[in-house]
């Protein structure tokens, strides 16, 4: 992924390319299409009774995006191989993020978000064409928007508070989006908890109930597959060895 190892803030691979900008635009256009169709159907409905269900569906999309971000992150962190087709580069990217977490904050926006935006466009666009339910379209729009934003909230969680706009800091403090204090739990030695990266609201439920641990054991018993987190050494902590909210240099990330 990076042009040089260890990566630096000026690494050319952090810059957005035109194709990445187009892919991100496709993602936002898909979200806008779902929202527009939802509003159009609601406006054409005989009454406004559909509006509350659209709002609830929008909230459901926000919570669903956080949950799916955690499930996907858990799968990619623990299973498969960097040489695999399709998922291999993602597995490699997540492993690199554990080694050099600050590199995520150095990427330009389209460089950071284009992959998830393209995935959302690919899967949600056909659903939008088929769907004629205003509430369901509201759910699709919300889920798509927050799924794309999950990598942005993840990046903000690796920034110091002084680097962020006060509104972003207020949203982090309110627990609406992922905070540094919350996300640092994932960047412990084993990277085996706090997988959700939009708001992290599901992390407590999933971790306290040992949901991923139970799934890992079930997969091991049924298929004999061990998750990567079972064999991690306990000495890989990098960025978060510093003070909370303090951004360390690229050099300090290397151990
Ligand atoms: Zn991870
Ligand atoms: Zn992270």
TrEMBL record:
Q: What is this protein called?
A: Uncharacterized protein
Query: Which species does this protein come from?
Result: Melastoma candidum
